[in-house]
Amino acid sequence: MARMTKTQVKEILDRVLTWAPEDQEKVAQFVREVEQRRASDDITDEEWKIIDARAARRDLATDKEVEQVFDRYRSA
């Protein structure tokens, strides 16, 4: 996944400012959530690269696979 340049990010944010206030609030809420996750983020940059690469390939666990793991630990 290619990194965006600062100019590209600014262009997107400028477009967001033209949106309806409700949609701007949705973007703001998403940004706040990302900031909260990043504040307690123990994942290294290298791990994020791996996550991004797998997400780009859509090589992620299915909902069923995730549920099976949770079930295993719930019963432990």
Task: Write a structural description.
With about 80 residues, this protein is mainly alpha-helical. The chain has one domain (about 5-75). The chain has helices at about 5-15, 20-40, 45-55, 65-75. The protein is extended, with a radius of gyration of 17 Å. About 0% of the residues are buried.
Low-confidence stretches: none
Q: What is the H/E string?
A: HHHH
* Major sheet attributes: none
Query: How many beta-strand elements?
Result: 0
Helical segment count: 4
Instruction: Determine Rg (CA atoms, Å).
Output: 17 Å
Helix content: over 70%
Q: What's the mean pLDDT score? A: 83
- Tell me the count of domains: 1
Q: Tell me the span between the first and last alpha carbons.
A: 38 Å
Strand percent estimate: under 5%
Shape: extended
Structural class: mainly alpha
Descriptors:
single chain; 76 residues; mainly alpha; 4 helices; 72% helix; extended
Give the gist of this structure:
This protein is mainly α. The protein is built from 4 helices and no strands.
Write the layout of secondary structure elements.
Layout: H1 6-16, H2 21-39, H3 45-57, H4 63-74
